[in-house]
Amino acid sequence: MKTLLLATFIFLLDQGSKWAALAVFKEPGAASITIIPGFFDLSLVWNKGAAWGMLAGKTLWLAGVSAIMLVLLILNRKEFMANRLGRFATGILGGGIAGNLLDRLVRGYVVDFLDFHWPGFSGETVYFPVFNLADTAIFCGVVLLVISSLPCFRTEP
User: Fold this and answer.
1) 103 is catalytic
2) How wide is the angle at C-alpha 17 spanned by C-alphas 16 and 20, nearest 5°?
3) Residue 1: strand, helix, or coil
4) Are 42 and 117 in contact (CB under 8 A)?
5) pTM above 0.70?
């Protein structure tokens, strides 16, 4: 039950942050808001693909993959939730997948707005692809799920 509450919290946090980004910027290309000069801005991007814009224009296919992953996560929850770390990972992963899935189904794209960048070695600015809270939850959930499957985490203390 706590895992479902965590997933719901992550989902609502993601959707609320996307709603706020859309309310502030209205459309992609609007002026960015600098949070940490030379490192972090808020900038609206409509991502019609997957990570880094790959598979752009394949919205229904990506939504289908997301839905399948969510179903697999639910069907295999007993295996994934064998310990506290696994339960936490499953919750944030499920909430993140659901957040981006809703975007794809309702909007036809994923709302991204977290924009990190830093000075490169030769003076040019290096930009990390713009992302959102659901992307962060998915990444962290996958990493933590892998860690939770290591033998040292397989049993509850």
Assistant:
1) no
2) 90
3) coil
4) no
5) yes
Catalytic residue among 14, 41, 103, 112: 112
Q: Which of 14, 41, 103, 135 is catalytic?
A: 135
CA nearest neighbour of 33 among 112, 131, 113: 113
- Residuewise pLDDT in 10s, the chain (157 residues): 799 999 999 999 999 999 999 999 988 877 899 999 999 999 999 998 887 777 888 888 999 999 999 999 999 888 888 899 999 999 999 999 999 999 999 999 999 999 999 988 888 888 889 999 999 999 999 999 999 988 887 665 4
115 noted as active-site residue: no
Strand partners, 47: 110
Cα distance between residue 72 and residue 117, in whole Å:
35
The token pair at 12 is 């609502």
Spatial contact of 130 and 43, defined as CB atoms under 8 Å apart: yes
